[in-house]
Amino acid sequence: MTLNWQAASEIAQKNVSSWADDAPGGAVIGFDGETIRFAHAGGVESLATLTPFSPDSVVRYASVTKHVFCAMVLAHADEIGLDDRLGKHLPELQAPLSDVTVGQALDMSGGLPDVRECLSLLGLSVFTETQKAELLAYVGRLTRLNFDAGTEVSYSNTGYRLVEAILERKGVGFNAFVEQQLAAPLKTFLTAPEVWADPVKDLVPGYWKADGGWQLSWAGLQISASGSLAGSATALTTWLQALISGTGAFAGVLEKLSAQRFLADGRPSGYGLGLRWSRLGDQKFVGHGGSHPGYKTYFLLDPQSRSGFVIVSNREDTNGYKIALEAMSALTGLALPKTGCIIPDGLYVTETGPWWLQVKAGVSTFLDSDDTLYDDGDGWFSSRSASSPMRLRWTGDAVEGQGGHAERRFLPVIPVMLDTANTDDASIAADLQGHWVCDEGAQLDIRDGAVFMGVGPTRQTMPLTALGNGRFLFTLKDGPWTKRICLNRLDGDRFELVLSRARMIEYRRSA
Question: What are the structural domains, with CATH classification, of the chain?
Fold first, then answer.
């Protein structure tokens, strides 16, 4: 296959040129195993200094960290095995979390609730500071998974947090591995700070767009090896060149990280160890994205031609996957996937349970996780995402298919605000009125068709929308994030709050 680097460069340049000289920006690099073929940048590092963004600007890579951490796990096979139960190394974990394997914790099939989304459901903001020991103790108190391990795939950072804790107890630190085993031999700058406030040399600020303009980003969660890595686009490229070339200590690492993983029933999942497979036509590519408040990162590799792209930015609205896929299409001449989804726009819900789906303009939102739907032929439409797999079709009266590889059947529903709700919904909502508490100390109130959560000036009033059969949606706003949460009634005195990555937070009626 002839590689058209000029066409790929033009696509990259077009994308970075959309970042204005007085707005946050980013960089796109195209490379092969030996050389950087092009590097384009746009926008600025800082709205205070208006210093132009460059390929050497240092950013947070967020979840692009994951495959690097998995490389460390593989390098310490004498200390930890992918088939080990988490409970073997972390005795404080309770079943069923303790029975999840290390491999399942890393390949997104473990059903481990994502800590950050759990905190949202407890009413704690993205800005609330949390520490490593207390977070680990919190996970040790959990007694529910999002789903039975090995039956689905749903993105979660918690497995990486737990496996990092295991290795730390064995004297193996992630930042030491990054700086000594990667950055030093590659003669580049990479580091893995544990908390947002840790100083990082030359780190540029991240930004998110509020109604009033750009805002500086911040996050209080102790980051963990699920997303702690920081460096520049150039540094990430240097590491990926070593990985894709497989030289020296990095021989065979990419193959191991990207090796096919399987669900408990033998189905391939498409998500490896911190890497996910994508495709154009019949050709497969491997990569991963990262998202922190104010930062977006993505890389995509073609192992066959040993080529790839890196995208980094210090702005919340960057779609790195789209840029990478367009550049790879231009490079290889392979056609971009078609959209043209014919599933009718609307809101859908399963007969029972918290599983809701919205389709709008070819984008599916499943439990508040958004994915573009691509035409797979024969009436099927797929997210083509190994980390949030969706495959759906319209039957004429329902949307059927798989969400996270689990079979689902969604029926159309007309959402109803409770002030105009039918008798059944209004009756259920009336019965929900009162004060509700969670075992972790969180509490909320329901009255007048709304959820009240928070204290003092942080208290939010969130109207409930009825989906029928004891299910309601409400919208929580938290800095750069807007989350639609499903309240699913379990019995007269108990309900659960459900997001895509955390589906098990229960509240009980206060006596």
Answer: 5-68+172-332 (3.40.710.10), 77-169 (1.20.58), 346-395+403-408 (no CATH), 416-509 (2.40.128)
